[in-house]
């Protein structure tokens, strides 16, 4: 049974009345009397839509904005968009397509490697650097050219490297040298809330883009979304005579030659001294900080490679197809490094400086350019705020990770989910908490403008309740 209650009256009142360390009660629907009125767009929806349109108007590298709408919302949304003289729009298939000026085509977010390679090396590299692979000294452009050359010299360049439903292939030369790893988007299989099958490739690229834009602090290998030509994909039917089906879109990542394999082949020592001799504190922190920012739902020892001939080894994080779920689905963080002794060690001065200089606004622009959904970009904003404010309060990586990850059997909301509920209370944003058949309590926001992108006032409220929680915790 779902019960009803009212919001707190304003942010200040909410913060005074509510204990920020208090857990949220399940089976609760929070409704504001204002929200109950028959208004298609309330003040918060109008606020966040205008904020998003302003950002879109200012970001020159993004030319098309898609916003899902209902029939009842259409008139009100059109009125708001019409207030922006530089924007044009059309309604198509339950969404409004907003463009700048006369631009009506969405820029491609991938490159057809075999096709572009026919133009030669210089044209290939020049095009990519002028287009969307203009960061980190051309490492991705060079990687894709190596892939193109490998394919040109070896028609059977793709070797499946694992069993199961999802496809992972090594791109290898005739001599067997691995150049890159390729994951076709159509072979993705996800069981995570807030993620959609087919989006894993761009998420793999997003992890690299965010990391490389911030000095490659965490060491994510060069990764790009690209289209390759392969003849032995699991999805190609043997009877198919069409070569068009051989072009596969997916994530291409530079192969990292790890002689030692992954952390899954070893056990992390329990003592801090011995663990740090195996892998340094700094290396664990670098991977953990990336996972916090991107809300990784699948970080385990099997996707952390060990580099080096002897300890202490360097860590290379891979497999980022399950990062950045939508902000209203933050119940499935998986951060296995929480059990590592290094996570309990305070951040170094260098690491604190790195965290303080992170700019979520600029990183959000980078994610929009890749086509990451707005509700997932909100997750980056939330998690970067948590990382920065908790670091200012002197919290460890373990403390911060424990804020994100649910305890025990994952049935009860995490501390972060509780804080998000309190922020919704403070800014009069409707939500619900319901227990599903498996016994897990789920945070829900009705699908629409607010679930896609909460307004800036929500982030202001979240920052206030977070700081209050940090001040009250030991």
UniProtKB/TrEMBL annotation:
State the superkingdom.
Eukaryota
Domain PI3K/PI4K catalytic: residue ranges: 155-435
Q: What are the record keywords, sorted?
A: ATP-binding, Kinase, Nucleotide-binding, Transferase
Which InterPro entries does the record match to this protein?
A: P4KG1-8, PI3/4_kinase_cat_dom
* Molecular function terms from GO: ATP binding; kinase activity
Q: Where are the transmembrane segments?
A: none
Which Pfam families has this protein been placed in? PI3_PI4_kinase
Question: Which PROSITE patterns would you find in this protein's record?
Answer: PI3_4_KINASE_3
Member of which family?
Belongs to the PI3/PI4-kinase family. Type II PI4K subfamily.
Q: What is this protein called?
A: Sporangia induced phosphatidyl inositol kinase
Source organism: Thraustotheca clavata
